Amino acid sequence: MPIVTSSMTTLVDLNDSRQLQLYIKSNQPRVQIFDPNASTYTPNWPTNKPVLTPELYIAGTSTDIIAQAKSIKWFVDGVELTASNTDYTLAASGVKTLTVNTNVLASANSKLFTVEVVYTDTRTGADIVAKNDIEFVKVSSGQKGTAAITGVLSNETHTVPTLFDGSGGVFTNAASTLTIYEGSTDVTGSWTIVQTRTNVTVTEATSSRTATVTALSADTGSVTFTATRSGYSTITKTFNLTKSKQGTAGSNGTSPTAYWLVVDASALERNVALAYTPASIAVSAKSQVGTGTPGNYSARFIIEEQDAGGTWSTKYTSAANEISKTHTPTSNSIKAVRVKMYLAGGTTTLLDEQLIPVVDDGAEPVRAIVWTPEGNVVRNGSGSLKIKCDVYQGSTVKTAAYAWFVQEPSQSTDVGGGIGWKKLDATYNLGVTGYTTTEITVPASAIPSVESFKCVATFSGATYSDVATVSDVTDPISSAIVGGTTFKNGEGSVSVTCKLFQNGEEIDSAGSEYTYTWSLYNENNVKIANWNTTGSKVGKTITVAAGDVTGRAHLGCDVSK
After folding, report:
1. Has residue 365 got a pLDDT over 70?
2. What distance in Å separates the CA atoms of residue 107 and residue 101, rounded to the nearest whole number?
3. Is the pLDDT of residue 168 over 70?
């Protein structure tokens, strides 16, 4: 049978104060969409600031009494926010709202905001503490259309060392390969590639993705790769070559020296958490005299980064000759890294350069978001509300298989929603409809006071879940536990009674209209399964022996009809 109301007391102090219901209202949705291509957020919180407003009700009333709170505290991911700062603004007076000023999800995938309210009960003079929280999550829009397509050459430019008259060129490593990424996936095989050659001799066919240059008929030459695919924009990348003439007339016998860069990554992959793979790149300088054995070369390096706006800035310049250098990107929003290699002794004579683009991981995270499109409260014990589960892959809502559950402490086995969650189906549904679809309709009769519903969504073979809590803010029935709550020297017993109130008046004083089921929890809030042998007691008034309590315990009563 459905639970009408629940209450709990700690067997240390008397607690017959009224029940409070605390909510957090937000003027912005709980989901913020991040576009890694443009590094933008929707909504953009600096211009559309989320304002979190606490609302407080006494069970059985519809009047917001938050202005009467003794204190209001806010916590961000469990840490108390005691003063305004760049990211957050705390209202200085009145109802203490919390305003989010910046895109705080830039460095996290979620943020949990918790409000703690202390209210002094006007009946008993006791302070009652209420807490509630709201979580904001970030989903990535991933990479769509042409924005996800990146063409990368393994070698953008190459210098061919020759004798003073341009002859005797050394073409070691005078090659480049085109790779096309969709997100971070190599899809080159899906494209048609044609080479256009100027002043060069190439060993591969013009339809190849690789060009290995064996001769250069002028001081400069190039290979232009044109890649096409139906439904996509054309990609054009050019491999440029230049002769570097060495020596003077009469020194024709001197063997030219070739110089080149070696980079350990052709591209940097950035995932939806804005982390790079590899985390850093290593570059090294090589040289070869004539047809001799290639070896390490002590060069100078300049390393640059291109920001999201396309501007290049220098991040490193060699102070001395060095064979290699490892560079870690200085920002999670760059578009590319460029490494330039110079002749030993300075940064005047450019020998080689390499561009390492950033490609974004096209894998989009999946997350289930359960929310209440019509609000999360019913009033006066009538009407209904809707609870919806949206399964996001990136920023796209996907169709999934849905199973809905209601929180039920007596559910001791996992039937798909975890222990403590009872599945809604044709046999058990509390009047809830749509429990196999993306949206359920919950009647007021299924909300005794505060109730939680969970959706477990199955998408692409994996399950995702989220929970929404709904309330009847004007439920006419509330409960309070009264009676003794202390023991001395581990002896004796206490008698406690669960009283019900409706419209300010006590009802069911005889305990005959409702069923009262009691449970005992230890000081860590773990239910004592063997208390009274069965783990529970039934009755409006019960007795708890001192031997049932070790130091401190919590006693709860569920009232059902």
Report:
1. no
2. 15
3. yes
Tokens of 244: 């570097």
Q: How far is CA 534 from CA 290, 461, 518, 519, 528, in A?
A: 90, 39, 11, 10, 10
- Residue 143's identity, in one-letter code, is Q
- 300 in Cβ contact with 347 (< 8 Å): yes
Q: Judge whether 210 and 204 are in contact, CB under 8 Å.
A: yes
Per-residue pLDDT, averaged over 209-234, amounts to 91
- Whether residue 351 contacts residue 299, with contact meaning beta carbons closer than 8 Å, is answered with yes
Interatomic CA distance for residues 162 and 480, integer angstroms: 95
100 or 395, greater pLDDT: 100
Own/partner long-range contacts of 540-544 (Cβ < 8 Å, ≥24 apart): 540/497, 540/498, 540/508, 540/510, 540/511, 540/516, 541/483, 541/495, 541/496, 541/497, 541/498, 541/511, 542/495, 542/496, 542/518, 543/493, 543/494, 543/495, 543/496, 544/11, 544/493, 544/494, 544/496, 544/520
Q: Which residue in 201, 145, 155 sits closest to 178, CA to CA?
A: 155
Query: Which of 408, 560, 549, 509 minimizes the C-alpha distance to 10?
Result: 549
pLDDT of residue 560 exceeding 80, the answer is yes
Instruction: Specify which residues 477 forms β-bridges with.
Output: 502
Residue among 195, 343, 352, 332 nearest 268 (CA):
332
Please state, rounded to an integer, the average pLDDT across all residues of the chain. Answer: 83
| CA nearest to 130, candidates 10, 21, 13 | 21
Of the candidates 32, 46, 53, the one whose C-alpha atom is nearest the C-alpha of residue 111 is 32
| Pure H helices in 392-517 | none
| β 366-371/384-393 pair status | antiparallel
Written as six digits, the tokens of 96 are: 């203490």
Residue 377: the pLDDT is 78
pTM for this predicted structure: 0.43
Classify each residue of 270-303 as buried b or exposed e, where b means 16 or more C-beta atoms within 10 Å of its C-beta: bbbebebeeeebebbbbbbeeeeeeeebebbbbb
Under DSSP, is residue 242 helix (H, G, I), strand (E, B) or coil? strand
From the list 143, 34, 138, the residue with the least C-alpha distance to 369 is: 138
Q: CA dihedral in degrees (337, 235, 225, 356; nearest 10)?
A: 10
